[in-house]
Design brief:
This protein has 194 residues and is mostly helical. 71% of the residues lie in helices and 0% in strands. α3 packs across α4 and α7 crosses α8. It starts with 8 loop residues before the first helix and ends in a 13-residue tail after the last helix.
Length: 194
């Protein structure tokens, strides 16, 4: 008869996330997570098979939570609502975590399961952007793809140049893209918007 779980999978995954924030997605170990949650390493192996299985489960949970997290962000349909939404998206980017972001992309490129999750997450973000574009706009999905590319490209540009704070740098690039797409609209500077 299996022993009852002292901690839920969600509690273990929360602890894994804390460990990754401290150690990074490549450096964390099962022993790190076991110490964080007070379980034996062997218990984690029984539940998640190995370090890769634990990491995949964490990323799967993150992707599954993404639709509700995106829905909770400010900004509704329309150009100004889109601007609020894009600023909220950019605001989660933290300069001190750029290495983690880049290492996560490497993991996603080398693991087909993680790659599929990354594609799904990317698609969900793009769809959320498209939903906020004016309904009268032609090819909303392509414009959303462009705005997403600006956000991701600006993140990569910041990783090389390290100019200011990452979230602000990305928001300024997005503001420029919106000003080009919607020249009759006025967009507040990112620092002017609460």
């Amino acid at each position: 008869m299996p022993r009852p779980k002292l901690l839920s999978d969600d509690e273990v995954l929360d602890a894994t996330r804390r460990v990754i924030l401290r150690r990074g997605p490549v450096q964390f170990t099962l022993a790190d997570v076991a110490a964080e949650v007070g379980l034996a390493r062997s218990t984690l192996i029984q539940r998640f098979e190995n370090r890769a299985g634990l990491y995949r489960k964490l990323m799967e949970r993150s992707t599954n939570r993404l639709p509700s997290e995106l829905a909770a962000l400010p900004g509704g349909p329309g150009v100004q609502g889109l601007w609020s939404f894009l600023q909220a998206l950019a605001s989660v980017l933290k300069s001190e975590r750029i290495n983690e972001y880049l290492l996560t992309v490497v993991e996603e490129m080398s693991d087909p399961f993680l790659g599929e999750l990354a594609c799904r997450g990317s698609r969900l973000i793009r769809e959320a952007i498209a939903e906020r574009l004016p309904e009268t706009m032609a090819d909303r999905s392509e414009v959303a793809r462009h705005l997403q590319a600006v956000m991701q490209g600006a993140s990569m540009q910041w990783a090389v140049e390290r100019e200011g704070e990452l979230s602000h740098f990305v928001a300024v690039r997005l503001r420029t893209a919106l000003a080009l797409l919607f020249p009759r609209e006025v967009f507040d500077h990112p620092e002017d918007v609460a």
